[in-house]
């Protein structure tokens, strides 16, 4: 019976996470395009457009490229986010259940370990999708290379021209980013959630039994707060990954050899500010998105578990 309940719970977490991820991407994708274009613009590539700020970038892309530009890479973004959130919540809940054996509740360290484990697995499985998304988002009329016609064409072209290993460019900073970002975000979310429940009722309450104690506004605030903490710490790894995943020029030579090359060149030419390019668009995209994601996730999870509880 316990095993069956665990299987159901893991499936419900995966389903809730997938729906939450899809909803989030649909509304926030234009900001993701702007963020990516800011991240890779080191001022040295004349074929990359330059923007003054997030607002001007959105208007410029909309005027010169239309919805196609604002939603470049939308399919891999939806695919990657839906798969990532579904797998992340599944692996995360499964890890928590494993660590909960012979324990009443998880410590912050075990929440951290659960989130890190889930993040590493998801990053390895989805890196090719994010590489294609980045390249599709960077396609502009100024590019000299033959543009990809879509997701599948990009995958085939990358493997044909650069080899299958190219699909895993940016994996190292991606792993660090995914493990650390997810670990910080989920640990902060769980601990803030626990604190909020306990402060309201002045007693220790298990997090998994607190569905009726928190409101939608609570979930939105918790989601945004935990996301902010994670972004401020891990954002430089996003910049490094995006720069590594750029498409090589017409000569076939990549702009950066490896992560250390990105760090050295960025620090030399742009300073610390270079590692935080695009963070405004990132915050505008991710803080509301994190709120929406956790609101959708918690409510769908409650909806799926309610029939079994009755």
Whole-angstrom Rg? 20 Å
Counting helices, strands and paired strands, the structural category is mainly alpha
Low confidence ranges: 1-7, 203-208
Number of strands: 0
Number of helices, where a helix is a run of at least 4 consecutive DSSP H or I residues:
9
List the secondary-structure elements in sequence, H or E. Answer: HHHHHHHHH
| Through-space gap between termini | 16 Å
Strand content: under 5%
| Shape category | globular
The biggest beta sheet reads:
none
Helix content: over 70%
Average pLDDT number:
85
Sum this structure up briefly.
The protein has 310 residues and is mainly α. The chain has helices at residues 2-40, 54-70, 74-99, 108-137, 151-162, 171-201, 216-244, 259-270, 279-309.
Map the helices and strands:
Elements: H1 2-40, H2 54-70, H3 74-99, H4 108-137, H5 151-162, H6 171-201, H7 216-244, H8 259-270, H9 279-309
Question: Could you list some keywords that capture this structure?
Answer:
single chain; 310 residues; mainly alpha; 9 helices
């Amino acid at each position: 019976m316990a095993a069956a309940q665990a299987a159901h719970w893991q499936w419900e977490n995966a389903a809730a996470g997938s729906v939450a991820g899809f909803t989030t991407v649909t509304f926030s994708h234009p900001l993701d395009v702007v963020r990516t274009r800011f991240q890779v613009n080191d001022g040295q590539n004349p074929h990359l457009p330059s923007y003054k700020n997030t607002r001007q970038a959105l208007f410029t892309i909309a005027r010169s490229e239309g919805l196609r530009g604002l939603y470049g890479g939308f399919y891999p973004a939806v695919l990657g986010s839906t798969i990532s959130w579904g797998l992340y919540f599944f692996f995360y809940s499964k890890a928590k259940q494993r660590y909960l054996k012979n324990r009443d509740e998880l410590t912050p360290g075990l929440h951290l370990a659960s989130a890190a484990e889930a993040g590493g697995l998801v990053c390895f499985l989805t890196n090719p999708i994010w590489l294609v998304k980045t390249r599709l988002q960077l396609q502009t009329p100024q590019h000299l290379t033959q543009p990809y016609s879509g997701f599948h064409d990009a995958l085939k072209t990358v493997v044909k021209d650069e080899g299958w290993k190219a699909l895993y460019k940016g994996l190292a900073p991606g792993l660090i980013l995914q493990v650390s970002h997810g670990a910080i975000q989920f640990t902060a979310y769980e601990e803030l959630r626990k604190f909020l429940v306990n402060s309201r009722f002045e007693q220790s309450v298990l997090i998994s039994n607190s569905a009726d104690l928190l409101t939608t506004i609570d979930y939105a605030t918790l989601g945004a707060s935990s996301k902010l903490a994670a972004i401020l710490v891990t954002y430089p790894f996003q910049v490094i990954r995006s720069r590594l995943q750029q498409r090589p020029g017409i000569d076939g030579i990549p702009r950066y050899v490896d992560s250390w090359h990105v760090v050295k060149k960025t620090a030399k030419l742009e300073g610390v500010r270079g590692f935080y390019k695009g963070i405004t668009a990132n915050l505008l995209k991710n803080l509301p998105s994190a709120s929406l994601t956790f609101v959708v996730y918690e409510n769908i999870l409650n909806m799926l578990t309610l029939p079994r509880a009755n």
